[in-house]
Amino acid sequence: MSLYEKVATLPVRVESYALEDRDREYASGFVRPSTIVRLRGAGEEGIGEDVVYDVLDHIAHRDAGPVLDLSGPRTLGELCELLGELDLFAGAPPVREPSRHYRRWAYESAALDLALRQNGLALWQAVEREPRPVTFVCSTRLGGFGDDPAPSTTEPIRRRLAKYPGTRFKLDPENDWTPELIAEIRELAGVDVLDLKGLYSGTPVDVETDPELYRAVAEAFPEAYLEDPDLNDDTRPVLEPHAERITWDANLHSLADVKEHARKAINSKPSRFGSLAELFAVYEWCEGNGVAIYSGGQGEVGVGREQIQYLASLFHADSPNDCAPSGYNDPSVPDGLPTSPLEPRPAPTGFRWAG
Q1: pLDDT per position as a tens digit, 299-312
Q2: Which domains are assigned to the chain?
Q3: Secondary structure string (H, E, C) spanning the chain
């Protein structure tokens, strides 16, 4: 029985649902929009988080309200199939097409949570895998982005290490990284992933492709994964000696994409795949073909962050998972955050942490 088959046959009943504003403004003034999806039925509630990046998409979603009829399906598989058929952006098309996957994941993760709770099961029990402590890295930018022209410095790293020594990082090399800055980073901290942002265009986090920057960071951090490079005639020769460390993220939306691009490892963002069936198929294929997985975060501020931690604890606990508790994303670096490895704390039922 496949992973998906283990949960798809669970009986489920949706009687109503609600959408909750969970937008978060950080001390820097940056706002991360988020909407919590709450599916309700048989005295239980399942929750998921919509991590679409564009504020207007969230506003349209909330303004439309609970307009979908989700009452017909009788199993989780039937409900997920229906969600794949419905237009979850019926009020207005999304600003970005990949957002359709993100919103579907919000509803399917809530549906999984609801089905498990209605059947008195925790996810780890349903898929027959023991949760393990989760190794995580802190993902942070060293400079400004979008309308913020702040230059890159090691201050964001220093702030986090001052409170949480030993934290390891996933960093986004930027065009103003100098040899001196790179050397300073190397002396300060362990870096497990370098996100080169080579597949982005027209976004606040765009980076101009620079073969010399690729060379400098690849050589300075010889153990780090090199994620999403822009491979062209100038960069391929630079990265060829490091080919086994190249990983992909932004272009992975299906198992077919993973099969086409995967090398030694991939970054798996559940919401990029959209559906439970696709995500579980990716887990099984990677496990069967020796491809490592590390999780990717999308700035989740609610249950979505717990859920990617939960999945990491079951399927890739020892990887450099970009699923640090969301406080690590706050420039103020709050006190009292858990450190890596993160102890799993699954709730007695459902797809969420306890407490």
Answers
A1: 899 999 999 999 99
A2: 3-123 (3.30.390.10), 127-329 (3.20.20.120)
A3: CCHHHHHHCCECCCCEEEEEECCEECCCCCEECCEEEEEEECCEEEEEEECCCCHHHHHHHHHHCCCCCCCCCCEHHHHHHHHHHCCCCCCCCCCCCCHHHHHHHHHHHHHHHHHHHHCCCEHHHHHCCCCCCECECEEECCCCCCCCCCCCCCHHHHHHHHHCCCCEEEECCCCCCCHHHHHHHHHHCEEEEEECCCCCCCCCCCCCCCHHHHHHHHHHCCCCEEECCCCCCCCHHHHHHHHHHEECCCCCCCHHHHHHHCCCEEEECHHHHCCHHHHHHHHHHHHHCCCEEEECCCCCCCHHHHHHHHHHHHHCCCCCECCCCHHHHCCCCCCCCCCCCECCCECCCECCECC
